[in-house]
Amino acid sequence: MWQYHIIQSSAQFNALAEEWNHLLAESASHVPFLRHEYLYTWWQTLGGGEWQNGELFIITARDETAALRGIAPLFFTQNREGECALLLLGSIEISDYLDLIVRQADLNYFCEGLLASLQGVRNPAWKLLDLYNILDSSPTLPALETAAEQFGWHYQEECLQHSPYIPLPGDWETYLAGINKKQRHEIRRKLRRLEESGIPYRWYIVQNEDELDQEINAFLSLMALDVEKRAFLTEVMRSQMRSAIWAAFRAGWLQLAFLEIEGEKAAGYLNFDYGNQIWVYNSGMDNRFNLYSPGWVLLSYLLKWANENSRTAFDFMRGNEEYKYRFGAVDRFVMHVRLER
User: Fold this and answer.
1) What is the DSSP letter of 290?
2) In principle, which of 126, 293, 310, 315 could form an S-S bond with 190, CB 3.0–4.6 Å?
3) Judgement on whether residues 127 and 156 belong to the same structural domain of the protein
4) Cα gap 288→204, rounded to integer Å
5) How far is 296 from 319, CA to CA, in rounded Å?
6) What is the pLDDT of residues 120-153, one digit of tens each?
7) What is the C-alpha separation between 340 and 153, in angstroms, rounded?
8) What local confidence, expressed as pLDDT, does residue 214 receive?
9) Domain range spanning residue 132?
10) In what order do the strands lie in the sheet with 277-285?
């Protein structure tokens, strides 16, 4: 029999780091937004101020040897509809993929135990599990639906957002051959325009820890050139992003890349290089360099790098912007699930 425990303090949460990441590496859903260092920094600012308040309510399951077998990384708050709910840590806006943390073979057993352990919980006075950003391919969805039916809970599932990605063949020319002919020509044309322009340019991935703060400032400045992103970048959100970037760098899965033209930063991409995939998190462009299509050029260099370095996928994550499909992305979706007892 597994024992289920509730974690409600930041100190207890922090102490789980090594076990947490070890279990995540073997879990059915192995994504960077479930890493302990990412979710711990998210919790410090409640998602960059997305939530005004919240209470930790992480549920862990351990077997008879005390080995960690499952984590429901939850917190309690009032959801978007004003209902008292348990949500996944990382919800909703800045964490593209969320899930439970458990090996696939253990999912059904863990979900049954999770709902059983929640049955009698009255403090906090939660009404429902309100779970966002679970990939449509996640085996957690049928496991939760089965457990809900067993306990007589109401299960509701809806498609939330497009989340396109590019499966990579491992070779740049093979990748180009696999996309639309017009788009293939466009990529090559834009690369040639810059490369044959005669003006100085370079692209690079940030490696130097001593320069990271300066590079973060430069990236946030590029983001802020866009009106919508400028409004998004409140002081608390800037703090959240800075902490998340540093956490990813220290853990070895940050890919912060820039294209410089004539010594100035023309485009930047904040990606995660994790699980042998590239996860495209955010970007910034300087429109003064639009003649050279800096965003497309840098994206092309990153796709070439990913192919040459044997990454298996280039994940654009949430959003159905047209350029993603023009680069050959195929669709999948993230889901929103509600379970009411």
Assistant:
1) G
2) 293
3) yes
4) 20
5) 17
6) 898 899 999 999 999 999 999 999 999 999 999 9
7) 6
8) 98
9) 3-162+335-340
10) 165-167, 313-315, 277-285, 264-274, 254-261, 201-205
